[in-house]
């Protein structure tokens, strides 16, 4: 159970900013800036952060859906960026992604049976004779009915479409799934159905999830470990319990205290952050959080804090910690 | 408590090619002075349409307000002429929307848009209006207000734009502020800033707020009084503490149980089975009947009425007796 399925080392993804008549590169958006993490088999790693902090880009770069700028990604010991096209294709069924928007990630011109079946045939998991049985099997697992196979995506509600997206991924029997905000577009009552489905499937098939979300309550429910991102970098990563009860980084503390609690009797001290997130094209020098941090010192403006283990596999990047 | 606005039996229907959608179906509610009233519900339950009906912003066709009364300080808003409604909109009742980018005009500066509202409603000179605009921008916590006033919406971040929207809504000191999902498009740290600002403004100006949201966390922090809507009807209403402590309607309790909580650990989330029914094909009896775990025979046959169970706690469910609401 405890073997590492995915290991990311110092991953970087910079997008060039081009300007002028000749489209010269005038700078870079550092969407993913030096991220390292590991994921074990059967484990869920939650990745939280505010919009534009690079969580989705991280997920996609790990799957090589977009090319990296620097760093390494090992999936079951193989560096996926060293694989040839054909080798990577053969690996694809093992690493899949569930998207946020169930409206735009399904082809409106294909029936549900075709959408799920296409992946099966493409990756030679099934042939023409067995594909229908396979599709039926996964549809049932995801709480859909057999007659849904002949229908088109527009005939389904948001929650059902998300189930189709999950069924499509499930059909390939992957080992590792990136869930990119899979419940953010759904209503509360539907959200819990999908979260429960993801948990059940994980118990049954020992999937590893990289669960990307901005909703700290959902991440807390589903994850084993949680990483917090700010402007392209991980600022803190630890066991779920540890990070929610003993957050060390000031950003994590502020983020947690900002989450509204659905209980009017809970009175909380809030530390409300001032200002907005700086632009990732022009991030602050030193610690990226120093412009909003209540504890900023001179060293924070000058030096980038080291991302280090402070014991108990609790990683944090802050000058206040461990000095 | 003094009533500021009272909606009685409001019916707003949409006439589409596929049939009639009863977006708001016989909704009654009231907002007291200086109070925050929250409408909670999932997408498509009619919470925004209720708010738009108050300001008579329903596009016609296809929509039409088919009946009911909206009494604001003794006047029925539905009986006023278009001219009279315009003098109320933005002046006595103002509204902020979910997506601040689409509700600000991209080709005018922030200042221009605020000043327009001031000059339209308050007969101030241009110079006085500019001063007032800067003042209100400072009030909502915008730094360098005298520079920002010349900025265009695209130059500002999402949180800043929402602050500008609030500034615009507050500039005429409205008696009622309708906020339709004001923080849904924002990040949590920015959401905390905006909610904090709204609380502060409410205390300072004694403006009543009607807050529309799907986020029970936001409700718990902001509301004095809550109405829960489902498929165009109010299923439960109560004071905030009462509703969270003692939810009566199975939909309300299901909703509360299905939300993962940051301060409580749960093994498994409760999930309300099934989906929200389509507005074209509503069940005959109680609209929640097909998804309800405590459904009885009567629920399939006849729709429950909103009844008072105990002081100020109303629910529309056959599980409870209680006196009928007039």
Automatic annotation (TrEMBL), chain A:
What's the name of its gene?
Answer: oppF_3
- Molecular function (GO) terms listed? ATP binding; ATP hydrolysis activity
Keyword field contains Nucleotide-binding: yes
Which residues does the UniProt record annotate as the domain ABC transporter? 17-256
What does the sequence similarity comment in the record state about its family?
Answer: Belongs to the ABC transporter superfamily.
Top-level taxonomic group: Bacteria
User: Which organism is the protein's source?
Assistant: Thermotalea metallivorans
- Matching SMART domains, A to Z? AAA
Q: Which GO biological process annotations does it have?
A: peptide transport; transmembrane transport
Pfam short name (any one): oligo_HPY
> What are the alphabetically sorted keywords of the record?
ATP-binding, Nucleotide-binding, Transport
Look up keyword Nucleotide-binding and say if it applies: yes
Fetch the InterPro entries from UniProt: AAA+_ATPase, ABC_transp_ATP-bind, ABC_transporter-like_ATP-bd, ABC_transporter-like_CS, Oligopep_ABC_C, P-loop_NTPase
Which residue spans traverse the membrane? none
Q: What is this protein called?
A: Oligopeptide transport ATP-binding protein OppF
From TrEMBL, chain B:
The Swiss-Prot or TrEMBL record annotates one GO molecular function as:
ATP hydrolysis activity
Task: Give the GO biological process terms.
Answer: peptide transport
Span of domain ABC transporter: 5-256
Q: Does the keyword Iron apply?
A: no
GO cellular component annotations of the record:
plasma membrane
- Localization (cell): Cell membrane
Pfam families from the UniProt entry: ABC_tran, oligo_HPY
The record, for InterPro entries, names:
AAA+_ATPase, ABC_Ni/Peptide_Import, ABC_transporter-like_ATP-bd, ABC_transporter-like_CS, Oligopep_ABC_C, P-loop_NTPase
Superkingdom of origin: Bacteria
User: What name has this protein been given in UniProt?
Assistant: Oligopeptide transport ATP-binding protein OppD
What is the originating organism of this protein? Thermotalea metallivorans
Report the gene name.
oppD_3
């Amino acid at each position: 159970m405890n073997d590492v399925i995915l290991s990311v080392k110092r991953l970087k993804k910079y997008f060039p900013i081009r300007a002028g008549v000749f489209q010269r590169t005038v700078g870079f958006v550092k969407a993913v800036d030096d991220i390292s993490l590991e994921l074990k088999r059967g484990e869920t790693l939650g990745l939280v952060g505010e919009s534009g902090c690079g969580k989705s880009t991280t997920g996609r770069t790990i799957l090589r859906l977009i090319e990296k700028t620097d760093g390494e990604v090992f999936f079951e010991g193989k560096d996926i960026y060293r694989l040839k096209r054909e080798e990577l294709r053969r690996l694809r069924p093992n690493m899949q992604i569930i998207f946020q928007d169930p409206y735009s990630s399904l082809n409106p011109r294909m029936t549900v049976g075709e959408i799920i079946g296409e992946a099966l045939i493409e990756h030679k998991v099934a042939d023409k004779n067995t594909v229908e049985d396979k599709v039926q099997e996964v549809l049932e697992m995801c709480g859909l009915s057999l007659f849904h196979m002949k229908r088109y995506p527009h005939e389904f509600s948001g929650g059902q479409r998300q189930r189709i997206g999950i069924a499509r991924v499930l059909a390939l029997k992957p080992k590792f799934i990136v869930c990119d905000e899979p419940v953010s577009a759904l209503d509360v009552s539907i959200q819990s159905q999908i979260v429960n489905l993801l948990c059940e499937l994980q118990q049954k098939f020992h999937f590893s999830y990289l669960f990307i979300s901005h909703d700290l309550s959902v991440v807390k429910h589903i994850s084993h470990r949680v990483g917090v991102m700010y402007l392209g970098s991980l600022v803190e990563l630890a066991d779920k319990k540890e990070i929610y009860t003993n957050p060390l980084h000031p950003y994590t503390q502020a983020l947690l205290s900002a989450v509204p609690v659905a209980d009017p009797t809970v009175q909380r001290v809030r530390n409300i952050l001032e200002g907005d997130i700086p632009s990732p094209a022009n991030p602050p020098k030193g610690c990226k959080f120093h412009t909003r941090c209540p504890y900023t010192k001179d060293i924070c403006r000058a030096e980038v804090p080291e991302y280090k283990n402070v014991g108990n596999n609790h990683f944090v990047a802050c000058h206040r910690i461990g000095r | 408590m003094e009533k500021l606005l009272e909606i009685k039996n409001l019916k707003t229907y949409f006439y589409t090619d596929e049939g009639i959608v009863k977006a708001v179906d016989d909704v009654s509610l009231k907002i007291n002075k200086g109070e925050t009233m929250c409408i909670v519900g999932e997408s498509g339950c009619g919470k925004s349409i209720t708010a738009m009906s108050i300001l008579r912003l329903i596009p016609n066709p296809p929509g039409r307000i088919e009946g009911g009364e909206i009494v604001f300080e003794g006047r029925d808003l539905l009986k006023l002429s278009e001219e009279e409604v315009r003098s109320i909109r933005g002046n006595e009742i103002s509204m902020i929307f979910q997506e601040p980018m689409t509700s600000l005009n991209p080709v005018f500066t922030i200042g221009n848009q605020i000043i327009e509202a001031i000059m339209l409603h308050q007969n101030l000179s241009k110079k006085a209006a500019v001063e007032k605009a800067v003042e209100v921008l400072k009030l909502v916590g915008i730094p360098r207000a005298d520079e920002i006033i010349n900025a265009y919406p695209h130059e500002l971040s999402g949180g800043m734009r929402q602050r500008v929207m609030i500034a615009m809504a507050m500039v005429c000191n409205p008696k009622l502020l309708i906020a339709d999902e004001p923080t849904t498009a924002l990040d949590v740290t920015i959401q905390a800033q905006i909610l904090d600002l709204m609380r502060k403004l409410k205390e300072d100006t004694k403006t009543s707020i009607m807050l529309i949201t799907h986020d029970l966390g936001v409700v718990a922090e902001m509301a004095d009084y809550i109405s829960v809507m489902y498929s165009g009807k109010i299923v439960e209403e109560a004071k905030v503490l009462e509703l969270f402590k003692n939810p009566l309607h199975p939909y309300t309790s299901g909703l509360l149980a299905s939300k993962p909580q940051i301060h409580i650990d749960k093994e498994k989330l409760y999930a309300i089975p099934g989906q929200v029914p389509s507005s074209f094909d509503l069940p005959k009896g109680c609209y929640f009947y097909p998804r309800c775990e405590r459904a009885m025979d009567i629920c399939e046959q006849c729709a429950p009425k909103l009844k008072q169970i105990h002081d100020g706690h109303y629910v529309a469910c056959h599980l409870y007796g209680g006196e009928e609401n007039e």
